[in-house]
Amino acid sequence: MIRTFVGKACALAAVGMVLTTPAAFADDQADRTATVTGVLFDDQNRNGVRDAGEPGLAGLKVHGTKDVVTDAEGRYTITGVLHGSTADLWLPIAANGGKLTLSKPKDATGVAWISGWVYVEVGADPVTTHDFGYGRWGADQDVSFSWSDHGRDPSHVQVGDKMRVDAETTTGAAPGYGGVLITAPVGTHVVRRELAPGTAYDWLDSRHVRIYGLRHQDPKSNRMFPVDIVVDRPTRGNITVELTHDQNTDTNKSNNKASMAIVAKAKPAKHADQVVAPRHDSGTGTQTPQASSSKELAYTGVEPKPYLAAGVALLGVGAALVGVARRRPRRTEVKSS
């Protein structure tokens, strides 16, 4: 009888454990997991904090333990994150067609930040909240030209000259690619050159080239794009440079284009009488140039007389013949007896 009672008790205990374990496990899981939530918002003043009047951004996908989309208020919610762990989230780096860019939070405590990846540390609290702002770059991107050929004036170049100009972009309070489109005037062409590190060139045609960086330039930085342009024929026009990247986030459009006027003339023709001046050794170790033009030859004032020269030559021949005749030996006459 005792055995029967013990057996029944064990059976009931086993059944009770089976029936109560899922509930206990669920309660235990609820105690050990947390929710990570927050709002992705339009950080209009770029201070990293959601201020009154800054709206949430709806429809942005957040990647975590599962993918979620921000609701109408811009809120994301990730559940089932274990206490004492890290929630790995990937946030889109741009919003509103690229006009807004993910900003690093002003207070990054508990958040490791690498580009769009954020690693949120989850403690013992049931809910961990982190808002992330998207701000307008506010970068006053501008472009300018500088003339590298310091020995020449761009308004006085000649056909065949190669001109070196530098297009420069400057970022403002936020990073940027700083891409530009350079246009050479009619009558010139852009010289293809080797790619600079971290830079890409799009050769559109002989007069147009697009140059841009392959990575973001740091805030408040300059990027220089050197360009060589050759003059093919006399012309008058402008070399222009125009910002082609970061337009959506640039706050000042008035300085996105610059130009430089050039006037190219034909090279002066050489005089018809001009010849290459030969050089000869004077015997003293130095070389002296001969006259390079007949106009440089000395004039003595005496014109050459051809007939006079011929007469002098005949007199010389006659004198020579007389001398020969005088040197001939006399003949000896023999008388007969």
UniProtKB/TrEMBL annotation:
Signal peptide positions (record): 1-26
Coiled-coil residues: none
UniProt-listed InterPro entries: Ig-like_fold
Entry superkingdom: Bacteria
Ranges of biased composition (kind: Polar residues): 283-295
Region described as Disordered: spans on this chain: 268-297
Biased composition (Basic and acidic residues): 270-282
Name used for this protein in its record: SdrD B-like protein
